[in-house]
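Annotated sample (chain length 202).
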Amino acid sequence: MKLHTEAVTPVLWNVLSELMATEPLSDFCLAGGTALGLLYGHRTSVDLDLFTDQSFDAAKLGGFLSEQFGLTESSIGSNSVSGVIQGIRVDCLAHRYPMIAEMRQLDGIRLLAVEDIAAMKLNAIANRGSKKDFWDLYELMQHFDRPQLLGFFKQKYPSANLWTVEKSLSWFDDAEMDPDPRCLKGRNWNQIRDAIAEWNRL
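Output written by the structure step:
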């Protein structure tokens, strides 16, 4: 399987490839909408979310990225480093929840398993779903049914309230004012919103 590199800019792809080749980021995998865009080619994405399930020295990693990659606008927190590299927003985070499937490596890029990304996407929607999140959910719906997707969430976040997630999947008000992502499959917001509402009918 080849990644859909048309979903990202050449600059983003180069930054991602270089980051993946560095030892300090060897425990990190790509997740989020950029990972899904590269896997499915459904929309473009402009930032990098790199996750590990291990704690890490954020100050040390931030220093490395600043020195070696010119990280700017940096923010260093507990197990988190955020900033900009060559105009690309990069977030490195420890997400210490169980991996529910094996990560995969394609074209030199380590990606969280789709099952884990799907669970994290539902978690994002439960907290405040953006239009991009719903766009990604619609693409995931083409590959998994509702019980499967909710099952991934329950596996990854066993103590979370599943009912809260189910309700949030039909709450589109927060997303309505977001700009549409650039879709690569000819979809529009009304189509996606209506399909998700029907799919999630409680």
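Annotation: The mean pLDDT is 97.
Annotation: The first strand starts at residue 29 and ends at 31.
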